[in-house]
């Protein structure tokens, strides 16, 4: 040990094993499954894979079967985390949609264009006189992304009729719990509610809610947010960086921390923002967008039957109540 006599840790393996509590069982599930246990002598089932001289035994044939396989996907890389924290991640499609929202406040007479596609000269003069660059939206150049952009009918579709859907469960529906439910027959799984602003800031604890086990063949994530800019950007971020089969919007959470900020079930009473969020996220996603709502926000005042047809018009593929 490079610390010599100053080191506080135990270096004698035999002495460590003598003081270690008795094993919990005779078989190690990690060794039986993957051919090696990464915990070695510290494993509470260590006698199943400790050989002569307390060396960690490896089942080479079984370990070879798992080489190169990623068991848990959707992790947050250091490179992506730095891009998010330094605000260097580019949200091209989201910004395009948000510019359209901002332009909705401009009178129609001001966004009329001539046959060449350029704004009218008097509009440019007025905007330049006001100071700064013109804020009039234009068509701009035609790019490959415009040509190859998926139409709604071309988006990936999920056939989940008759399948068992494990609802997203905050503080409970983590990856180990979903693995257990998957073993008991769940077909469709969804991650815990993740706050979009925390994801955009690159918080590791929030990104852990997006992790997907390789046994989850139909998997989605659930996002919570109150504003179209953060929700649309977060949807584009996930669409480009992780593997999911659908994205769900939480419009059902009733806790004060979420409700008072305008998120969760508060969105049911903020129909304009709700519509912008659904349309924006749907425009940047290549997978289906789903929405989870409540019957209403106040007791004995139901809104679901009025808002569900509108959610369908906005572009959502599925609504759960």
UniProtKB/TrEMBL annotation:
Presence of the UniProt keyword Flavoprotein in the record: yes
PROSITE patterns attached to this UniProt entry: UPF0034 (PS01136), ZF_C3H1 (PS50103)
InterPro entries: Aldolase_TIM (IPR013785), DUS-like_FMN-bd (IPR035587), PRR22 (IPR031535), tRNA_hU_synthase_CS (IPR018517), Znf_CCCH (IPR000571)
Pfam families: Dus, zf-CCCH_DUS3L
Known cofactor(s): FMN
Zinc finger region(s), C3H1-type: 1-14, 27-50
Record's keyword annotation contains Transferase: no
Keywords per UniProt: Flavoprotein, FMN, Metal-binding, NAD, Oxidoreductase, tRNA processing, Zinc, Zinc-finger
Class in the EC hierarchy, top level: oxidoreductase
Gene Ontology molecular function, alphabetical: flavin adenine dinucleotide binding; tRNA dihydrouridine synthase activity; zinc ion binding
EC number from the UniProt entry: 1.3.1.-
Domain C3H1-type: start-end pairs: 1-14, 27-50
Family the entry assigns: Belongs to the dus family. Dus3 subfamily.
Protein name from the UniProt record: tRNA-dihydrouridine(47) synthase [NAD(P)(+)]
């Amino acid at each position: 040990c490079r610390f010599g006599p100053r080191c506080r840790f135990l270096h004698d393996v035999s002495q460590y094993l003598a003081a270690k509590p008795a094993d919990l069982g005779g078989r190690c599930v990690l060794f039986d499954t993957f051919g090696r246990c990464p915990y070695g002598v510290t494993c509470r089932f260590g006698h199943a894979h400790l050989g002569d001289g307390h060396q960690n035994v490896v089942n080479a044939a079984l370990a070879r079967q798992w080489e190169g396989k990623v068991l848990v996907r959707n992790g947050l890389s250091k490179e992506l985390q730095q891009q998010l924290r330094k605000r260097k991640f580019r949200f091209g499609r989201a910004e395009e949609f948000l510019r359209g929202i901002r332009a909705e406040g401009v009178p129609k007479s001001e966004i009329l264009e001539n046959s060449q596609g350029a704004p009218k000269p008097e509009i440019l003069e007025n905007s330049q006189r006001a100071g700064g660059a013109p804020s009039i939206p234009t068509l701009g150049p035609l790019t490959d992304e415009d040509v190859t952009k998926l139409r709604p009918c071309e988006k990936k579709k999920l056939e989940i009729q008759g399948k068992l859907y494990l609802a997203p469960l905050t503080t409970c529906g983590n990856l180990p719990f979903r693995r257990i439910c998957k073993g008991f027959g769940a077909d469709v799984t969804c991650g815990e509610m993740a706050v979009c602003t925390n994801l955009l800031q690159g918080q590791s604890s929030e990104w852990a809610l997006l992790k997907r086990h390789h046994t989850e063949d139909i998997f989605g994530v659930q996002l919570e947010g109150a504003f179209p800019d953060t929700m649309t950007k977060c949807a584009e971020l996930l669409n480009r960086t992780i593997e999911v089969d659908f994205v769900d919007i939480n419009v059902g959470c009733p806790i004060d921390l979420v409700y008072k900020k305008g998120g969760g079930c508060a969105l049911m009473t903020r129909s304009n923002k709700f519509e912008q969020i659904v349309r924006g996220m749907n425009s940047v996603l290549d997978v289906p967008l789903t929405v989870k709502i409540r019957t209403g926000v106040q007791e004995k005042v139901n809104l679901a039957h009025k808002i569900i047809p509108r959610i369908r018009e906005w572009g959502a593929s599925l609504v759960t109540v």
